[in-house]
Amino acid sequence: MTVSVRALNKEDYADWRPLWDGYTAFYECKLEESVTASTWERALNSDSALLCRVAEIDGKVVGFAMCVLHEGTFSSAPICYLEDLFVDETVRGSGAGKALIEALQAEGKREGWSMLYWVTRQNNPARKLYDKFVTADDFVRYRVSL
Ligand SMILES: CC(C)(COP(=O)(O)OP(=O)(O)OC[C@H]1O[C@@H](n2cnc3c(N)ncnc32)[C@H](O)[C@@H]1OP(=O)(O)O)[C@@H](O)C(=O)NCCC(=O)NCCS
């Protein structure tokens, strides 16, 4: 199976939406419809800091990487936070997840981003994939809900 990665476009909604629902279910999270609508709109809007790249197999969108580009204090170049990564359960293990991260790495090099990073749960089996890219650091996350 050949995997290709490209930017999200507005014709992708019918494919993206079930994947997004699968992703939020994976995190046992029930999002307001207005939030999903806003996420979709911002992912398509080139003026937004949100971006989305999709993986295709045989012309079908099977996965996505949703990212936020942000500024930082230790570099003047943009930093890319890979916030959401998801691949359709039926095609997992076909290289789509790896292809999405590799495509972001390549895009970041082209565009002059200083870093690509992501966080995951300690026990996420996907770390088998992540460990192929880099060794995890020892930072921990503190979150204050507001
Ligand atoms: C994580 C995820 C996107 C990986 O997508 P994928 O397309 O299956 O990954 P790939 O096929 O590119 O995997 C490449 C390698 O990593 C391994 N791998 C990837 N995900 C794995 C997982 N969940 N468990 C075990 N191994 C995994 C594959 O076995 C493969 O190893 P190999 O090259 O030695 O055979 C997918 O498993 C997923 O959507 N998981 C649920 C949501 C999730 O955890 N998202 C990430 C949150 S941080």
TrEMBL record:
GO terms for molecular function: N-acetyltransferase activity. It comes from the Bacteria. Residues 3-146 form the N-acetyltransferase domain. Keywords: Acyltransferase, Transferase. It holds the Pfam family Acetyltransf_1. The keyword Transferase applies. PANTHER family: ACETYLTRANSFERASE, DIAMINE N-ACETYLTRANSFERASE. This is GNAT family N-acetyltransferase. It comes from Lelliottia wanjuensis.
